[in-house]
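Quick sanity check, Calponin-homology (CH) domain-containing protein:
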Amino acid sequence: MEQLRDSIESRLKVALPEDLGSSLMDGVVLCHLANHIRPRSVGSIHVPSPAVPKLSMAKCRRNVENFLDACRKIGVPEVRHLHPVSAPTAEPSLVHILCLVLLFVAYSWSELT
């Protein structure tokens, strides 16, 4: 997890909070990471504003979906189910997203080298 944090912070030139999961849940950092690795891979990112500092669940979901779409377009293999108890209709969990981020970072490093 520390390597993931370090990689994201160094690429995006940001300091992430101690709780990495909560900083990725709204999808903003994920979308910026995708755009850093492949410019314009995420066309629209919903970001909090001073007037509305917390995104709605719908906007968070759109961000995460945009990130996942960008991963697919770039060619990152999709991870459907990581746990045998997962229901086929379950929404992507944070674990799924973190695994995709790890795959995404690994894929991008292999493309750059």
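Posting the structure with no commentary besides this: Residues 84-92 have pLDDT under 50 and may be disordered.
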